[in-house]
Amino acid sequence: MDEVEVVVAHYERATLRVGDVFLKVDTDQARIDVEVEAMSLVPVPTPKILWRKPPVLAIAAVPGTTLGRLRGPSTGSPAAWAAAGAAIRKLHEAPLPPMPGRAGRSIAALVAELDDECESLVKNGVLPADLVTRNRQVAEGALRPWTPAFTHGDLQIAHVFLDGDKVTGIIDWSEAGQGDALYDLATFTLGHEEHLDDVLAGYGTDVDLDVIHAWSSLRSLLAVRSLIDHGFDPFTPGCEVDVLRSRM
User: Fold this and answer.
1) How many domains does the chain have?
2) Does residue 76 lie within any of the structural domains?
3) Residue limits of the Aminoglycoside phosphotransferase domain (predicted)?
């Protein structure tokens, strides 16, 4: 009998693996609704849905491996990173989905959330004031009008699987919706910016690197306290706090 592996678990959701089946348990069925709808719409490979019985969604494992994890070294050839970039571009060129998506929040909402989070980080002694202030300045570059695209919304490096230089599957679509394409690129290369040129070679169009860096700072600032609350450590080498320190 296959063992049960806890992939991730916190008070909002959990993902378990049993053999080649992943069981996603989520207290918010709206997130699962978004995930199911997004996978039915995107023009890139996604996991096969095996069955759904709220609060559980069962999906099949996708073949291949990831290019790495935020908390570890990256792998893969430049061609593999470029292939990931080409798949991301294909997603961004797809017709806009009906769901707004977390990455599609208004600029005013982002400014308010970012200001509150920066104040809390400093007030509670989570991060030094100079680090927060500098990254808040960098993050300003993301707070500008953008043309909405179909975005994944949480395109971590661990969510894209490849076999050689072929993308075999992109997972975890619960944050998908309309948003800034550069947010996805920033998320995918977070902690691995040395591969950004390879990703953009496959993406195949000019982008504003300053905006990508701005989204990296913004995402990291917003993530630190939430990660701690969910039992993760953003101070691990190569993770969010290191990303923030790199801007100093």
Assistant:
1) 1
2) yes
3) 41-204
| pLDDT tens digits in sequence order for the chain, 248 residues long | 578 999 888 888 899 999 999 999 998 999 999 999 999 999 999 999 999 999 999 999 999 999 987 767 777 899 999 999 999 999 999 999 998 876 667 889 999 999 999 999 999 999 999 999 999 999 999 999 999 999 999 999 999 999 999 999 999 999 999 999 999 999 999 999 999 999 999 999 899 999 999 999 999 999 999 999 988 899 998 899 999 999 98
Name which of 63, 146, 73 is nearest 104 in CA terms.
Answer: 146
Q: Rounded distance, CA 73 to CA 192, Å?
A: 8
Round to the nearest angstrom and report the end-to-end CA distance of the chain: 51
27 within domain boundaries: no
Q: pTM to 2 decimals?
A: 0.94
CATH, residue 161:
3.90.1200.10
Token readout for 45 is: 């490979």
* Distance (Å, whole) CA 91 – CA 178: 11
**Closest CA relative to residue 90, chosen from 162, 152, 48, 33:** 152
Domain hosting 174: range is 64-245
152 found inside a domain: yes
140: tokens are 């300003």
- CA separation for the pair 127, 3 (Å, rounded): 39
